[in-house]
Amino acid sequence: MRGNLIVGQSGGPTAVVNASLVAVIQEALRHDAIGEIYGMRFGVLGLLREDLVDLRRVSSEMLEELRRTPSAALGTSRAGLGDDDVDRIMRIFQARGIRYFLYIGGNGSAATALRLHRRAADLRYDLWVIAIPKTIDNDLVETDHCPGHPSVARWLAVSVREAGLDTEAIGTADPVKVVETMGRHTGWVAASTALARQREGDAPHLIYLPERPFVRQRFLADVERVHRERGHVLIAAAEGLVDERGQFLAASQRPVEADPLGRPQFGGVGAVLCDLVMTHLQIKARFDKPGTMQRVSALLSSRVDAEEAYRVGQAAVREAVAGRGGTMMTLVRERGPVYRSTTGAVPLDRVVGDIRRVPEEFIAPSGYDVTSAYMDYIRPLVGPLPQYARLAPAARTPI
User: Fold this and answer.
1) 309-318: pLDDT as tens digits
2) Of the residues 54, 122, 126, 137, which is catalytic?
3) What is the percent of the chain where pLDDT is above 90?
4) Could you give the CA distance from residue 354 to residue 345 in angstroms, rounded to a whole number?
5) Which residues make up each annotated binding site for substrate?
6) Residues 56 and 37 sit within 8 Å (Cβ to Cβ)
7) Taking a C-beta distance cutoff of 8 angstroms, is the pair 396, 165 a contact?
8) Which of 14, 103, 340, 393 has the highest CB neighbour number within 10 Å of its CB?
9) Under a CB-based contact definition with an 8 Å cutoff, are residues 6 and 28 in contact?
10) CATH 3.40.50.460 region(s) of the chain?
11) Which residues are part of a known binding site for diphosphate?
C-alpha cells in the first residue's frame, strides 16, 4: 500500500542516532510505496503539534554530513501519551495519509510505538509501526546490544584510561578519584570502563553497578585495600547505585528535577562516595562527572556503532514496506572468531515492559568488577583504543 512515512527521535541523544535517521530517509527515497517523508520535531511532541519537517527536501550532501553528526537532528523529548493524545495522533495520520511510523529510541519509545500499533489495529487503520533501537544504556531486551552504547563505551574507555594516568601521577596529592557514569537502572555503561585497562592493575580499580547492592562497609574496605596496595584508587560508579534496601544512593525527589515522565533526576553518586571515603577513611577524594557529554562524542564514536545504527534504520524501512509492523529492529551477533552482526526484528510486546540488566556471567564474584566474558562481549563493539606508555621501573630508579 502506498502511503506517507513519518520518523522521529526520542529519549537521550547519542553519537550515532542521526545515522539511523539518515538511513531511514535514504532508504525511504528508494521505495515507490512511500510518498511524503516527514520528520517530527522533538518526537511525539512535534507530532501532536504537527511540527513536521519535509525530509525529501534535505540535500544528499546534507544527509552525508548529518550521518556523521552527533546528537538528534530532529530534536527529541521524553513525553508520555494520554489516550486523547493517541487518538489525536491517529487523526493526524489519517488526515496526512501516513501509513509508516518509525520511531528511533529506547524503552519509552518502544512503548509509544506499541500503543500506536495497537490503536491502529483497533481502528482497522493500516499502519506499519517500527521501533528503531537507540540507547546508550544498552537495556533493551531481544537485541545483542543497542546502537549508541558502543560509542559511549568507547568514550569512557579512553576518558577513564586518561583519568587513571592522571590519578596515578598525582596520587600523592589526590589519591582517590570517582568517575560517575550514566546508568539509571543498569550497569552496562559503568561496566564499559573496564576497557580502560591496558595492563593488570590499571584503572579502574573498582567498578560498581546497580545490579549489585552497594554495601558501604564493603566499599570502604575495598578502597582502603587498593589504596594501601597502590597508593591511589580510581573508582567507576553508575549514577543509579542502590543500597541494600533498594534505595538510590543519590536521586533527587523534588518535582522540579524530575523528567517529564516523573522519574527522579539522577546524579550525585560521585559526591556521596567521595564523602564516605573522606569521612571514614580520612583520605582525600574527588570526583569527575562527565554527565551528558559522554553520550554524544563524535570524535570518540565507535565505527561499528555508526555502521550498525545506519543498518537498523535501513532495515526498518524495508520491514515496513514489506508489510510487517508492530516490531522493533534488533542486532544479532553471528557466531565465529570475527565479529559480525545482522539485523532482525521482534514483536514489540516482547520488548516493552522489560529491562535488560547486566547478566550474572558478566559480573565478577567480588561484585566490583566484570568478567572476561563481558570483555569478550564489549571489545569488538568498541574497536582499538589509543595505547599509552609508562616509564619502565628501571628508568624511574634514581641515579
Assistant:
1) 999 999 999 9
2) 137
3) 92
4) 17
5) 135-137, 182-184, 239
6) yes
7) no
8) 14
9) no
10) 151-297+357-382
11) 12
Which class for 43: exposed (0-12), middle (13-18), buried (19 or more C-beta within 10 A)? buried
Write down the residue that cell numbers 534504520 correspond to. Answer: 313
Q: Give CATH 3.40.50.450 domain extents, the chain.
A: 3-147+299-350
* Rama region for 211: left / alpha / beta (φ>0; ψ in -120 to 50; rest): alpha
Given a contact cutoff of 8 angstroms between Cβ atoms, the answer to whether 38 and 52 are in contact is yes
3-class SS letters over 170-191 = CCCCCCEEEEEECCCCCCHHHH
Fold of domain 151-297+357-382: Rossmann fold (3.40.50)
- Confidence band (pLDDT; 50, 70, 90) for 184? confident
3-state secondary structure of 49: helix
83 is catalytic: no
The CATH number of the structural domain formed by 3-147+299-350 is 3.40.50.450
**CA separation for the pair 167, 261 (Å, rounded):** 38
